[in-house]
Structures are given as C-alpha cells and as structure tokens.
Specification:
Layout: H1 20-24, E1 40-46, E2 52-58, H2 60-64, E3 68-73, H3 74-79, E4 84-86, E5 92-94, E6 100-101, E7 107-113, H4 116-123, E8 127-132, H5 139-142, E9 160-167, H6 169-178, E10 181-192, E11 201-207, E12 212-217, H7 222-233, E13 240-243, H8 259-271, E14 274-278, H9 281-287, E15 291-302, E16 308-318, E17 347-355, H10 372-390, H11 394-401, E18 410-411, E19 417-418, H12 423-434, H13 436-448, E20 452-458, E21 473-474, E22 477-478, E23 481-487, E24 493-497, H14 506-518, E25 525-529, H15 547-573, E26 580-582, E27 586-589, E28 596-598, H16 599-608, E29 619-624, E30 633-642, E31 649-659, H17 666-685, E32 717-720, H18 738-755, H19 769-778
Parallel strand pairs: 1-14, 12-13, 16-17, 24-25, 31-32
Antiparallel strand pairs: 1-7, 2-6, 2-8, 3-7, 4-5, 9-17, 10-15, 11-12, 11-14, 15-16, 18-19, 20-30, 21-22, 23-24, 23-29, 26-27, 27-28, 30-31
The structure holds cytidine-5'-diphosphate.
C-alpha cells in the first residue's frame, strides 16, 4: 500500500509515484508530441552496405521532389567542418558518410521536407553509387595482419583501437604458476541493444532573430549534450537550450550524440525553422549505440578446496566502426575491472583490447555502470565452473570466497575501494527464502528420474555513482551532480537537479529525500529536471548514478537550507541559534515546551520577517562531488526446468535479494528490480544482434530482436538487506541496473546446472530452446 504524498517523514516509505497520473493517462509529453509552428521533418538515407566506397551521390531529383526544402550530404558537412564529431570515447565518428561507409544502415544523407512522408519519398530519389569493399564482422579476423583496414582516417593502420589493463601482471602470473587448480572458460556476452520503447529523436529549433537554438531531445544527459553541441557547432553555449522532455526509456541509449541530432541542428541552422527527426525502431536498433559484444577468456587459480587465489581475464571488445562507448575518459573498457566481484582474490590481471569491425558503433552502458554487466556475468559464470571442477556446491564456494563484512572498506586487486557490504547475510537470506536445501533435494530426485532441473546463483557486486571528479570525467567534464532547491513563501518547494530521469521515479524519490530533510511532505516538493536553462549543471542519469550523486546533492542542498532556516527559527522563537532543536518536522526551543515553528513558518518568515541583516529568501544550490563510488550487491537465485522434448527453459522461480544501502522508496526499488530482471531475462534467453558475413544486421527489428511480453516474463520474488554506504549523505547506493547486471548469470548458471549431468559447463547467451535441444540431442536425451 503506497503512502499518501501528504504525509511527513517519507524517506524509506512506499510513496505513490507522483509522475504516474500523467503517464497512466497517456499524458506524458515526449519529443514526438511536440509540434512547433512551421516545423519541418527530416529523414536519413542509410547505407545498404556494411563497407563500401561512395563513388557519387546525386541529390538533384530529391531536391525537386514535392515539399523538399533541403538535402544534406557529408560533403556539405565537410564544408562546415561538421562531417565528423568526437565520440565520448576519444574517437571520432562520421555524421554523414564521406568517402566510404563502414556499417550497414550508416547515415549517408539527410532530406528535410514539409512532411515526414515527403522526406521519406524524396529519400528514395537520391542516387548513390557504391563500390562494395571487403567486410569484417569478426573482431578476431579484424586483428589478423591481412584484414582490410576499416578506419582510413586514423594514423594507426590497424583495426586495433586500444589496449587497456588493470591489476598486477607478475604477481598474478606467479599465483597461477603455483596454483593447485586452474579453470579457464571462453565466455561471450553477445551484442544487445537497450531498445527503449521511445527511440531516439529531437527537434532542433534555431531562431535566427535571437540566435538561440532550442533543442528538444530525448536525452539522458542534457547539460553534457549542450556543452558538446556548443563545442562541435561553435554556437555559444548560453545560446543553446536543451530541453529533454519526458523520456520513454533510456537504458544508456540516450547518452551519446547521434548523427541524426547533428544533421537536424545543421538543417535548422540553415533553414531557420524547427526540424524534427524521429527514428524508426529499425533505425534505433541498427545504428544507435549497441551494448556488450565482449569476447572474454577467464581463468581462475584456486586451492583444491575452491578458495580463489588469482583471476586472469583477456577480452576482445568489438566496438563496431567507431568507438562510441559511453565510458568515462580514463576507462576505455569502463569499470570492467570490477570483475573480481564479491570475492577476495589476492591478485588479478584484466586486459581488454578494443577492435573495429563493420558494425554500428557503440559500447553504451545498457542499464549498466560502464561494462559492469559483462564483468559480473563473467565472474559469476566462471565461479560456477570452478565450483563444479572442485566438487563444491556453488553457494558454499561463494561463501568460502566472499569478501567478509569486516574487510570493508575493501581494496580490490584491480584498485577499487568497496565502501560496504555484507555478502554472507544477503546470500543467507536468499538461500533461506528460496528453500535451497529442499530445492537441491528435489533436484536430486528429479535427476534420478532423468529430469532436468537447475538452480543458478549469482552473488554480484556492482560499482555505481560515477563519480568522484578526481577520477571520473566524460570528455573532460568532471563527473559530479547537483541540486538547487527554492522554498517559496507558502512553504512549497521547487527543486531542480542536474540529472534527467527516464521513468525511474525521480519526481517522487528526490522529493522524498528533500521532504525528509526539510520536514515537509513529498506533495510539497516539485522536482524539475531536463531543462538546461533552469537546472544546475550535471552529468545526467545513467549507470545508476542519480541516487549516489544527485541524491547526495539533494540531501546536502536541503541541509544547507536547513542551516539558514535554523537561524530564522531562532529569530521566530526568540532564542539563540544554539538553543534551537530540529526534530525532523519542526524547530523547537530547548527548555520551552510547546514552542515550535515548522519549515513552512520559517519559509514565510524568509520573505516577510527576517532577522536584521539577513539575506531574504530560502534557497540553495549544491554541487556534490562524491568521495567514492557506491558498491551495491545482491544474491539472485533462479530455478529452471527444461523440457526434454523441445529444449524450452521454464524459469519456475526467481528470487532477487538486493542491497542498495538505505532505501528511499521500497516500491520504486522493487519496480526497478522487476524491470531490470525482465531485461536480464531477455538477454539470457532471447536477445542477440548477429550479422552475416556481408555485414547485414540479422536482428534489425522487434520481430528478430525479441522483447519479452508479460506472457514470457517469469514472476519475480524480491527481498532486501540494507548495508548503508558509509560516505553517502543518506547511506543510499544506486539500484537501477543491479537486476540487469546480476541476473544473466543466475539464469545461465541455472540452465548449465540443469544440464550438468551431461557434462555441460557453459552455454553462451542467448539460450534459445534450439541450443538446449541440440545439447539434449547430442547426448541422446531426445531424438
Ligand atoms: O540513475 P538512476 O535513476 O537510473 O538509478 P538509481 O540511482 O539506482 O535510482 C533508480 C530509482 O530508484 C530512483 O527513483 C531512485 O531514487 C530509487 N532508489 C531508491 O529508492 N533507493 C535507493 N537506495 C536507490 C535508488
């Protein structure tokens, strides 16, 4: 039962979501809902080839077509020095192709017309002559010496993008040399896509009379987008206003700047009219930032009883044609070095090599704190392989290796300082709640009858909240976040934050934090995000960073206001400030029972009855630079049954016990967990973006790239432990991505566990029924 929004002390309570009335009634306002007078529409012409030289582009017929106002090609952009834009990963990316195309569906020309249909029709009239070139889709082949060089713009004549490593090579190798047990596994995390319900899109509205560009864009990071746009276009930053209206899902997809955005801005600048560009579903999946695509080899050195010693990971990261990963600057492979996970490895060596192929660019953090999902999947998968090799139950193996609660703050061998955790407690709760012992007994009975039932565990650690500005920046912009709170005379609050939610419920949860700190109700607090003209500067919402960063800013900003409020309260109570006591709801005077004032009384006084010499008003701004990241964790358990005839896997039960420190709103956290588990389930069982040898994308829409419906989705059971972050102002850690990070391994571990009697040690995702059926058939289980 949700708490009413008018109640006081709302932190930690299930306050009903303030944003839902408008979403449930279909009254959200997304970019495509915005209609401006005189608006034009843009459509992008895309390459049918994955690798081809462009011999000529003839736009003359398209320019004559009805309603067409402008056609833009790469050559036009070259003349404006806008043919290439920087990516967030220190690479550069073509806006509209010049010279050659590097992946199928690459943007080649933009047509702007009075209607969208006219733009689409005219696009068919653009005549482009291509000369096909050899295609490389396999990143291992791309590294071979005779592979065609894809990126002719680079000085380095190879398809190798970067090498990155963390950990101590010599110490790790020493432990491997002497280890009694070594397990090794090749594990692929396939190419997937965030595929938000609302695809990418924008309206660029340049007003020639004021010189101001208003850019409505479905963005997770409006401030950063404005800065990048200013740097790329040369427009003064204060003359750009980015408005990110309601965002229909982001999941990392709406962090990068895409070619369509730049083309729409150029078109509006040239035409002096608003230009709208909205992607189709296929455009979204085939050309905007994909996620994962990591080919990982993992080795664990251990004692005979399964106690781990060292970890060695080598990864080939397929970045497609441009390295457009959304990673902080110093981390070309994101935070992948968290791969030692929840376990007390003595040493580790993690290496990643980025590679170019003829595929769409990306490497975005799909509901993931920059490659943490790949890391968690890998370690949780291979810990199970180790458990089987040494003959120890996977739950017991984990317990033997956990970083113990008294070891926090824990310094990992790859350099992270984990803030807090209690892994044993979380796993113990999960095992008890799921009835692990009973399930293992049931499994033994079923195995004896030739049935295939599996139990999969994942006890992952996350790293979220980028970040401390000493280590984290994106394109040089330090990663902090911000809040600005103003209490108006009647005690009502408008608070603006530098992040931008996409359905996570910030309008409720940030109101809860602020209301808690100020003795108000959530109903008293209006949260606004997403307008760069109004909100304080911040790096945006992705990587579960909002609560660790902007959540901290909101609390500290409110406390800053409370400090001033205390002075005003002293004036109203006619006592010294040192005699004023705050009890969470009102200020009272020590030794004067019955004499108290609320924040509303104080707010009114801030505009009407101030102490002598005090600045009027009651507002503050806070830029919060967190001292460290936060490290949420969880224990997930999946129980599956396999149909011997079809290979279909039924997820009978799934329990997620999460620990995200102090919980702001349990209902919203549960909702985050449900959503993330559904995505994790889809990744484990349904989703992949494969390519044929010619670079044709074989899953360019929701017919081939499957999205789970309510019918496919299992029932989720959730629970929680609470280990507050010692450095966060309210002890909260992020949670939004934990279920996506932690669940794939639980699903796969369960399926592999079911098939273990056949000697199966690993199956790459997605586990389609046919893969399981093939295994059953190879082992003579089915015909
Ligand atoms: O950055 P993003 O909002 O995607 O992720 P988050 O910080 O993990 O927050 C997701 C949602 O869960 C927000 O509404 C948070 O305020 C809420 N949350 C919470 O209620 N308690 C926590 N400890 C963490 C997040």
């Amino acid at each position: 039962m949700a708490l009413h929004q008018t109640e006081l002390r709302p932190l930690g309570k299930c306050v009903g979501r303030k944003e839902d009335p408008r979403f449930i009634r279909g009254k959200g306002r997304y970019v495509d809902d915005i209609m401006l007078p005189g608006m034009l529409y843009m459509y992008l012409v895309r390459s049918p080839y994955a690798h081809a030289r462009i011999k000529s582009i003839d736009t003359s017929a398209a320019l004559q077509a009805p309603g067409v106002k402008l056609v833009i090609t790469g050559e036009d952009l070259e003349a404006m020095n806008l043919a290439w834009i920087p990516t967030m990963a220190n690479d550069q990316q073509m806006v509209l192709a010049t010279g050659k195309v590097l992946y199928q569906y690459q943007e080649v020309a933009a047509v702007i017309a009075e209607t969208r249909e006219q733009a689409v029709d005219a696009a068919q009239l653009i005549d482009i002559e291509y000369e096909p070139l050899p295609v490389v889709v396999d990143p291992f082949k791309a590294l071979e010496p005779d592979a065609p060089i894809l990126r002719e713009d680079r000085e380095k004549k190879s398809n190798h993008v970067f090498h990155w490593e963390a950990g101590d090579r010599e110490a790790t190798e020493e432990l491997f040399r002497n280890a009694p047990v070594v397990v090794k596994k090749d594990v692929r995390f396939q190419r997937v896509h965030p595929a938000p319900l609302e695809p990418c899109g924008c309206i660029a509205d340049y007003n020639p009379s004021t010189g101001k560009l208003t850019w409505y864009v479905t963005s997770q990071a409006p401030h950063a987008h404005r800065t990048v746009l200013a740097m790329v276009s040369g427009l003064p930053e204060h003359q750009i206003r980015v408005i990110s209206p309601d965002v229909g899902g982001g999941f990392g997809n709406k962090v990068p700047i895409y070619p369509g955005y730049v083309a729409a801005v150029v078109a509006s600048l040239k035409l002096g009219k608003p230009v709208k560009w909205i992607e189709t579903r296929t455009e979204n999946i085939t050309s905007t930032g994909f996620a994962r695509d990591y080919h990982m080899t993992c080795e664990i050195a251990a004692e005979e009883d399964g106690r781990v010693l060292a970890l060695r990971v080598k990864t080939i990261a397929d970045h497609g044609a441009f390295d457009a990963a959304a990673d902080p600057s110093k981390f070309p492979a994101g935070l992948f070095s968290i791969v030692t996970g929840s376990y007390d490895f003595k040493e580790a060596l993690v290496e990643v090599d980025g590679v170019y192929t003829n595929k769409a660019p990306g490497g975005v953090a799909y509901r993931c704190s920059f490659r943490v999902t790949e890391a968690a999947y890998l370690i949780e998968r291979v810990m199970d392989v180790l458990a089987r090799r040494v003959g120890v139950d996977p739950a017991e193996l984990r317990k033997r290796n956990f970083i113990r609660k008294e070891q926090f703050p824990y310094k990992s061998p790859t350099g992270w300082t984990y803030d807090s955790g209690d892994y044993e407690k979380t796993l113990a709760l999960a095992l008890e709640k799921i009835g692990y012992e009973e399930l293992r007994k049931e499994q033994a009975e079923k195995r004896a009858r030739g049935e295939f039932m599996g139990i999969g565990i994942s006890t992952f650690t996350e790293v979220v909240g980028a970040g401390p500005s000493h280590t984290f920046d994106i394109m040089g912009i330090k990663m902090f976040d911000s809040a600005q709170i103003r209490i108006h005379p009647t005690g009502k609050v408008i608070a603006r934050l530098g992040v931008r939610h996409q359905g996570q419920g910030h309008e409720t949860t940030f109101a809860q934090i602020i209301a808690e700190e100020l003795g108000l109700s959530t109903d008293d607090v209006l949260i606004e995000e997403g307008d760069t003209d109004n909100a304080p500067y911040g790096l945006g919402t992705y990587a579960s960073r909002s609560t660790p960063t902007a959540g901290g800013a909101a609390a500290l900003c409110a406390r800053r206001i409370r400090d001033k409020a205390k002075k005003i309260a002293a004036h109203l109570l006619e006592v010294g400030e040192e005699d004023v006591v705050w009890d969470g709801v009102s200020f009272s005077a020590k030794g004067l029972p019955g004499k108290s004032v609320t924040m509303k009384d104080v707010a009114f006084a801030a505009y009407t009855n101030l102490p002598e010499g005090m600045e009027p008003g009651l507002e503050a701004t806070y830029y919060y630079d967190p001292p460290n990241l936060t490290f949420p964790h969880g224990a997930y358990i999946a129980v599956v049954d396999i149909d011997k005839g079809t290979g279909a896997v039924k997820v009978r039960r799934f329990l997620a016990v999460d620990d995200c420190g102090t919980v702001i709103n349990p209902m919203i956290v549960d909702g985050q967990v449900h959503g993330g588990l559904t995505e994790g389930f889809a990744i484990a069982f349904m989703q992949d973006i494969p390519f044929d040898d010619e670079g044709n994308c074989l899953a360019p829409n929701w017919m081939d790239y499957l999205v789970p419906t309510a019918l496919d989705t299992p029932h989720w059971e959730t629970d929680r432990t609470v280990t507050p972050s010692p450095h966060h102002p309210i002890g909260a850690k992020g949670v939004g991505e934990s279920p996506n990070v932690g669940s794939p391994a639980a699903f796969v571990n369960a399926v592999v566990d079911a098939l273990a009697p056949l000697g199966v040690e690993h199956i790459d995702m997605p586990i389609f029924p046919w893969k399981v059926w093939q295994i059953l058939r190879e082992h003579g289980v089915t015909e």
